[in-house]
Protein backbone atom coordinates (compact mmCIF):
# COMPACT_ATOMS: atom_id res chain seq x y z
CA UNK A 1 0.00 0.00 0.00
CA UNK A 2 2.76 2.35 0.84
CA UNK A 3 4.43 1.75 -2.55
CA UNK A 4 1.24 2.67 -4.42
CA UNK A 5 0.95 5.89 -2.44
CA UNK A 6 4.52 6.74 -3.37
CA UNK A 7 3.78 6.13 -7.07
CA UNK A 8 0.68 8.34 -6.83
CA UNK A 9 2.69 11.09 -5.20
CA UNK A 10 5.62 10.92 -7.58
CA UNK A 11 4.07 10.06 -10.92
CA UNK A 12 0.34 10.68 -11.06
CA UNK A 13 0.10 13.80 -8.95
CA UNK A 14 3.29 15.29 -10.24
CA UNK A 15 2.45 18.52 -12.02
CA UNK A 16 5.96 19.23 -13.26
CA UNK A 17 5.26 17.71 -16.71
CA UNK A 18 7.44 14.63 -16.27
CA UNK A 19 4.44 12.38 -17.09
CA UNK A 20 4.59 13.43 -20.75
CA UNK A 21 7.66 11.26 -21.25
CA UNK A 22 5.94 8.26 -19.68
CA UNK A 23 2.83 8.87 -21.79
CA UNK A 24 4.95 8.96 -24.96
CA UNK A 25 6.69 5.73 -23.99
CA UNK A 26 3.38 4.03 -23.26
CA UNK A 27 1.91 5.21 -26.59
CA UNK A 28 4.99 3.99 -28.48
CA UNK A 29 4.85 0.61 -26.75
CA UNK A 30 1.14 0.29 -27.57
CA UNK A 31 1.83 1.19 -31.22
CA UNK A 32 4.64 -1.38 -31.35
CA UNK A 33 2.40 -4.02 -29.81
CA UNK A 34 -0.45 -3.23 -32.22
CA UNK A 35 1.90 -3.29 -35.24
CA UNK A 36 3.37 -6.63 -34.19
CA UNK A 37 -0.07 -8.10 -33.64
CA UNK A 38 -1.41 -6.87 -37.00
CA UNK A 39 1.68 -8.20 -38.83
CA UNK A 40 1.27 -11.57 -37.13
CA UNK A 41 -2.39 -11.71 -38.19
CA UNK A 42 -1.45 -10.73 -41.78
CA UNK A 43 1.09 -13.56 -41.96
CA UNK A 44 -1.42 -16.02 -40.54
CA UNK A 45 -4.06 -15.01 -43.11
CA UNK A 46 -1.62 -15.33 -46.02
CA UNK A 47 -0.39 -18.74 -44.86
CA UNK A 48 -3.93 -20.00 -44.34
CA UNK A 49 -5.08 -18.69 -47.74
CA UNK A 50 -2.13 -20.33 -49.52
CA UNK A 51 -2.66 -23.59 -47.65
CA UNK A 52 -6.35 -23.65 -48.59
CA UNK A 53 -5.56 -22.88 -52.25
CA UNK A 54 -2.91 -25.60 -52.31
CA UNK A 55 -5.37 -28.04 -50.76
CA UNK A 56 -7.96 -27.16 -53.40
CA UNK A 57 -5.39 -27.68 -56.15
CA UNK A 58 -4.24 -31.00 -54.71
CA UNK A 59 -7.84 -32.13 -54.37
CA UNK A 60 -8.36 -31.20 -58.01
CA UNK A 61 -5.40 -33.39 -58.98
CA UNK A 62 -6.74 -36.24 -56.88
CA UNK A 63 -10.20 -36.02 -58.41
CA UNK A 64 -8.78 -35.73 -61.93
CA UNK A 65 -7.65 -39.29 -61.47
CA UNK A 66 -11.21 -40.55 -61.18
CA UNK A 67 -11.19 -42.04 -64.68
CA UNK A 68 -8.08 -44.13 -63.97
CA UNK A 69 -9.32 -45.13 -60.54
CA UNK A 70 -12.67 -46.23 -61.90
CA UNK A 71 -11.05 -49.09 -63.85
CA UNK A 72 -9.49 -50.42 -60.67
CA UNK A 73 -12.72 -50.03 -58.72
CA UNK A 74 -14.48 -52.25 -61.18
CA UNK A 75 -11.98 -54.91 -60.24
CA UNK A 76 -12.49 -54.21 -56.54
CA UNK A 77 -9.56 -51.84 -55.85
CA UNK A 78 -9.36 -48.07 -55.65
CA UNK A 79 -5.90 -47.47 -57.11
CA UNK A 80 -5.11 -45.78 -60.41
CA UNK A 81 -4.60 -48.71 -62.78
CA UNK A 82 -5.68 -49.61 -66.27
CA UNK A 83 -5.43 -52.67 -68.42
CA UNK A 84 -2.76 -52.55 -71.09
CA UNK A 85 -2.77 -54.29 -74.44
CA UNK A 86 -1.29 -57.44 -72.88
CA UNK A 87 -4.28 -57.67 -70.54
CA UNK A 88 -2.16 -56.73 -67.50
CA UNK A 89 -2.85 -53.96 -64.99
CA UNK A 90 -0.42 -51.07 -65.09
CA UNK A 91 -0.19 -47.92 -62.99
CA UNK A 92 -2.00 -44.93 -64.49
CA UNK A 93 -1.95 -41.60 -62.62
CA UNK A 94 -2.39 -38.02 -63.75
CA UNK A 95 -0.16 -35.55 -61.90
CA UNK A 96 -2.13 -32.52 -63.10
CA UNK A 97 -0.83 -28.97 -63.13
CA UNK A 98 -1.03 -27.69 -59.56
CA UNK A 99 0.80 -24.45 -60.32
CA UNK A 100 -1.81 -23.66 -62.98
CA UNK A 101 -4.58 -24.04 -60.38
CA UNK A 102 -2.63 -22.01 -57.81
CA UNK A 103 -1.92 -19.23 -60.32
CA UNK A 104 -5.60 -18.99 -61.22
CA UNK A 105 -6.86 -19.24 -57.64
CA UNK A 106 -4.41 -16.81 -56.03
CA UNK A 107 -3.67 -14.53 -59.01
CA UNK A 108 0.05 -15.37 -59.12
CA UNK A 109 2.63 -14.45 -61.75
CA UNK A 110 5.16 -17.00 -62.90
CA UNK A 111 8.67 -15.68 -62.39
CA UNK A 112 10.89 -18.66 -63.13
CA UNK A 113 11.20 -20.78 -60.01
CA UNK A 114 8.86 -18.54 -58.03
CA UNK A 115 5.17 -17.81 -58.43
CA UNK A 116 4.66 -14.33 -57.03
CA UNK A 117 1.61 -12.50 -55.75
CA UNK A 118 1.95 -8.77 -56.38
CA UNK A 119 -0.29 -6.30 -54.60
CA UNK A 120 -0.02 -2.51 -54.99
CA UNK A 121 3.25 -2.92 -56.89
CA UNK A 122 4.91 -4.86 -54.05
CA UNK A 123 5.53 -8.55 -53.60
CA UNK A 124 2.96 -9.85 -51.13
CA UNK A 125 4.29 -13.43 -51.10
CA UNK A 126 5.98 -15.97 -53.33
CA UNK A 127 5.65 -19.72 -53.71
CA UNK A 128 8.35 -22.14 -54.83
CA UNK A 129 9.60 -25.72 -54.58
CA UNK A 130 6.27 -27.39 -55.22
CA UNK A 131 6.53 -31.11 -54.68
CA UNK A 132 3.59 -33.36 -55.48
CA UNK A 133 3.70 -36.97 -54.44
CA UNK A 134 0.87 -39.24 -55.49
CA UNK A 135 0.55 -42.41 -53.48
CA UNK A 136 -1.28 -45.10 -55.38
CA UNK A 137 -3.03 -47.83 -53.46
CA UNK A 138 -1.63 -51.27 -54.23
CA UNK A 139 -3.35 -53.50 -56.71
CA UNK A 140 -4.71 -56.60 -54.99
CA UNK A 141 -3.69 -55.69 -51.41
CA UNK A 142 -3.37 -58.44 -48.85
CA UNK A 143 -5.01 -56.33 -46.14
CA UNK A 144 -7.36 -53.40 -46.73
CA UNK A 145 -6.80 -51.77 -43.35
CA UNK A 146 -3.01 -51.47 -43.44
CA UNK A 147 -2.50 -50.57 -47.11
CA UNK A 148 -2.12 -47.03 -48.39
CA UNK A 149 -5.17 -45.32 -49.79
CA UNK A 150 -4.95 -43.36 -53.00
CA UNK A 151 -3.87 -39.85 -52.00
CA UNK A 152 -1.86 -36.87 -53.14
CA UNK A 153 0.58 -35.04 -50.89
CA UNK A 154 1.75 -31.56 -51.75
CA UNK A 155 4.55 -29.49 -50.24
CA UNK A 156 5.38 -25.91 -51.13
CA UNK A 157 7.63 -23.17 -49.79
CA UNK A 158 5.99 -19.88 -48.85
CA UNK A 159 8.01 -16.70 -48.47
CA UNK A 160 6.36 -13.54 -47.18
CA UNK A 161 8.32 -10.28 -46.90
CA UNK A 162 7.56 -8.57 -43.63
CA UNK A 163 5.89 -5.20 -43.71
CA UNK A 164 7.42 -4.48 -40.36
CA UNK A 165 10.91 -3.28 -39.49
CA UNK A 166 11.56 -1.13 -42.58
CA UNK A 167 12.88 -4.09 -44.57
CA UNK A 168 15.56 -4.87 -42.00
CA UNK A 169 13.94 -8.13 -40.87
CA UNK A 170 14.24 -11.34 -42.92
CA UNK A 171 11.10 -12.61 -44.67
CA UNK A 172 8.97 -15.34 -43.18
CA UNK A 173 9.80 -18.67 -44.84
CA UNK A 174 7.70 -21.71 -44.11
CA UNK A 175 6.93 -25.01 -45.80
CA UNK A 176 3.29 -25.93 -46.19
CA UNK A 177 2.09 -29.50 -46.55
CA UNK A 178 -1.36 -30.71 -47.47
CA UNK A 179 -2.75 -34.16 -48.13
CA UNK A 180 -5.80 -35.00 -50.18
CA UNK A 181 -7.22 -38.37 -51.08
CA UNK A 182 -9.73 -39.88 -53.40
CA UNK A 183 -12.43 -41.99 -51.83
CA UNK A 184 -15.10 -43.41 -54.04
CA UNK A 185 -18.69 -42.84 -52.94
CA UNK A 186 -19.78 -46.33 -53.80
TrEMBL record:
The chain crosses the membrane at residues 20-41. Keywords: Membrane, Transmembrane, Transmembrane helix. This is Uncharacterized protein. The lineage of its organism: Bacteria, Bacillati, Bacillota, Clostridia, Lachnospirales.
Amino acid sequence: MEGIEIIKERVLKNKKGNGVIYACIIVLLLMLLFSTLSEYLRLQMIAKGVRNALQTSITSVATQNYDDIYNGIREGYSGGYKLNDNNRWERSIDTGNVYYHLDNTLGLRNNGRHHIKISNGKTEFSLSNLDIKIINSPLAPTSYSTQNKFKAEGKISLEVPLGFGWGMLPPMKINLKVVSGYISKF
